[in-house]
Amino acid sequence: MPVNKKTVTSPEEFNADAFSQAAIALHVSSSGEYAGQSPHTHRKGQLILSLRGAVSCEVEDALWLVPPGHAVWIPGEIPHSCRITKNADTCFLFIEPGAAVMPEICCTLAITPLVRELVLYLAEQGQVFSPDSKTARLAAVLLENIPDVPVKALHLPVSEHPKIRKMAEALFNEPDDRRTLKQWAAHLAISERSLARRIKEATGMSFGRWRQQLHLMIALSHLAEGQSVQRVAGMLGYDSVSAFITMFRKALGKSPTQYFSSLN
């Protein structure tokens, strides 16, 4: 019997790999924060599209942030875990291996209005449809139109190195922590030079650039929930709202207000 969005309230209730169709979709709305499963895999690739709110997806060495109008692509068989912000509206598109030309690595993609509407339409249909059906033809159009250019600004490299991981977890929990690299090195019982080198090797960024990127990811997530620019700036420990807006504009080319207006 076909499964549709009316009978599924969370992704865990849905086994996409049980279907052989080239593409199937699931539409999930949630009033509360969704923490997701522990790291897991699918045979099918998975495109998680944010319509409202934000999605973050973590794999072994990176974290991707998906604000409205974007999607994160997770190739098949890659262990991952996802988190969805409060009051989010999200679509999951599952793609059979080889059914579309997609990136071979996880990445965030900007989604066009056409792709968004096709995903929503597919999510309204039953997941069991014949290869010569109207639904199959529309799914083929969708797969041809999914963009394959990653949005690099929405990516945060992370590391499994225990000292760097400890620092990252602390900064996620208390993003207003303004300890310098020297202070972090003392706290982690490692030389400042060694810590700087390991951060650069693991993330490709300096400590200052990496922390700024972490702040950007946290800011996007909270702004997507509807929190004010003033509140988010304070949460991240900025001395002024204008300093936060300057950081945001340098990273994404627009102020927070302009950025989110452009996604509507």
UniProtKB/TrEMBL annotation:
Keyword Electron transport: no
Transmembrane segments: none
CDD domains: cupin_NimR-like_N (cd06124)
UniProt-listed Pfam families: AraC_binding, HTH_18
One GO molecular-function entry: sequence-specific DNA binding
Domain HTH araC/xylS-type: 165-262
Cross-referenced Gene3D superfamilies: Homeodomain-like, Jelly Rolls
PROSITE patterns membership: HTH_ARAC_FAMILY_2 (PS01124)
Coiled-coil regions listed: none
Keyword Protease (UniProt): no
Keywords annotated in UniProt: DNA-binding, Repressor, Transcription, Transcription regulation
InterPro entries per record: AraC-bd (IPR003313), Homeodomain-like_sf (IPR009057), HTH_AraC (IPR018060), RmlC-like_jellyroll (IPR014710), RmlC_Cupin_sf (IPR011051)
Name this polypeptide is given: Helix-turn-helix transcriptional regulator
